[in-house]
């Protein structure tokens, strides 16, 4: 094992994460989504939405990497819980890694819609992430000597983690100064249109060989600091209108996962009930109101100011900047998604059950 892998294992032990010894529980993990999962895909893009600078990564072994938090993302923790001894590399920098074990396509500010987040600059929307996945499948096929049937059999056993949709609301629908979505659709109509597009992308991914899906529901977006500041009323702790929109989307996404489970009988789609999980995470329900206190000093864009020292005790804070959770909150979400203490958290099963099928 190389020095980098050893450093990573030491870090996992210090983080209090269970290390699974042996082969990973799935042959590969593919990650799709936005800044909640991005691990460096935005670093070289022309965009204001980047996190490859201090204080991001202050608790990560390699420092700032493009992750929008102080340490690990939810997808990172799930990667470890699945038994991988390394993190899944970003598509923008997969050279030197064994891509047969997976690739991370997630992009900060990206959404289901093409135009989402584009006022900040370039990003890799969900459709483009699927196109990048096709490139990776082609590369994997070359690596195994062009044996397509072997690749297809492998992909069926892989896990596909998809966490996307937040930006379609906070960086599209609820930004009327940049987008006209709210003029064309009611919140429920917009959510329905989003889920319709989402469904098309998931079916396209299924045609590419995917059969084990984790579909992550949206946070109660009205309770993140930026939305409270921007859309909150009468000193409320959450922006009701934004929360209602994210709830409607989640209801439609849960219904979609049930529909897809019926439509594709040999595939499995998990819906992760993020808001219900959040209601049982201490940092998100602290009596002093830490859910609206960010750990780092933020700029006008809601992200950490470069080179500013963050809070010292990051384990007491729910949010690192105005949008993104701290590592300890990400750990809770990953653990609850992987091995759910409640049947209501992950439907119809949790990730640990899914990977055993």
TrEMBL record:
Query: A Pfam family in this protein?
Result: Lipase_GDSL
Task: Please verify whether the record's keywords include Metal-binding.
Answer: no
In the record, which residues are listed under signal peptide?
Answer: 1-22
Note whether Cell membrane occurs among the keywords.
Answer: no
Q: Cellular location of this protein?
A: Secreted
**Keywords tagged on the record:** Hydrolase, Lipid degradation, Lipid metabolism, Secreted, Signal
The entry lists its GO molecular-function terms as: hydrolase activity, acting on ester bonds
Q: Which GO terms describe its biological process?
A: lipid catabolic process
* InterPro entries assigned to the protein according to its UniProt record, in alphabetical order: GDSL, GDSL_esterase/lipase, SGNH_hydro_sf, SGNH_plant_lipase-like
Q: Which GO terms describe its cellular component?
A: extracellular region
Give the main location. Answer: secreted
Q: Which family does it belong to?
A: Belongs to the 'GDSL' lipolytic enzyme family.
Kindly provide the name given to this protein in its UniProt entry.
Answer: GDSL esterase/lipase At1g29660-like
Question: What is the organism field in this record?
Answer: Arachis duranensis
């Amino acid at each position: 094992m190389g020095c980098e892998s050893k450093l990573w294992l030491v870090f996992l032990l210090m983080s209090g994460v269970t290390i699974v010894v042996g082969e990973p529980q799935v042959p590969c993990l593919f990650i799709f989504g936005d800044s909640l999962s991005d691990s460096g895909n935005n670093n070289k893009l022309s965009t204001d939405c980047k996190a490859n600078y201090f204080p991001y990564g202050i608790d990560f072994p390699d420092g700032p990497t493009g992750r929008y938090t102080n340490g690990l993302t939810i997808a990172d923790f799930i990667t470890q819980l699945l038994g991988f001894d390394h993190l899944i590399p970003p598509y923008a920098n997969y050279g030197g890694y064994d891509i047969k074990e997976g690739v991370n396509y997630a992009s900060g500010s990206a959404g289901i819609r093409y135009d989402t987040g584009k006022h900040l600059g370039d990003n890799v929307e969900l459709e483009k992430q699927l196109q990048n996945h096709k490139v990776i499948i082609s590369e994997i096929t070359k690596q195994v000597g062009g044996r397509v049937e072997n690749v297809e059999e492998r992909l069926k056993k892989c896990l596909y983690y998809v966490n996307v949709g937040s930006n379609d609301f906070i960086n599209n629908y609820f930004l009327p100064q940049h987008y006209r979505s709210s003029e064309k659709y009611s919140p429920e109509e917009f959510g329905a249109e989003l889920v319709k597009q989402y469904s098309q992308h998931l079916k396209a991914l299924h045609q590419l060989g995917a059969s084990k899906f984790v579909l992550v529901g949206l946070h109660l977006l009205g309770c993140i600091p930026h939305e409270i500041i921007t859309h909150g009323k009468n000193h409320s702790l959450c922006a009701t209108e934004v929360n209602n929109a994210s709830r409607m989307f989640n209801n439609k996404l849960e219904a979609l996962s049930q529909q897809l489970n019926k439509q594709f009988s040999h595939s499995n789609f998990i819906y992760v009930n993020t808001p219900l999980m959040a209601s049982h995470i201490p940092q998100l329900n602290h009596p002093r109101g830490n859910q609206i206190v960010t750990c780092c000093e933020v700029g006008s864009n809601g992200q950490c100011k470069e080179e500013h020292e963050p809070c010292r005790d990051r384990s007491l804070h729910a949010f690192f900047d105005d949008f993104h959770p701290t590592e300890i909150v990400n750990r809770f979400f990953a653990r609850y998604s992987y091995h759910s203490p409640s049947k209501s958290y992950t439907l119809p099963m949790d990730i640990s059950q899914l990977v055993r099928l």
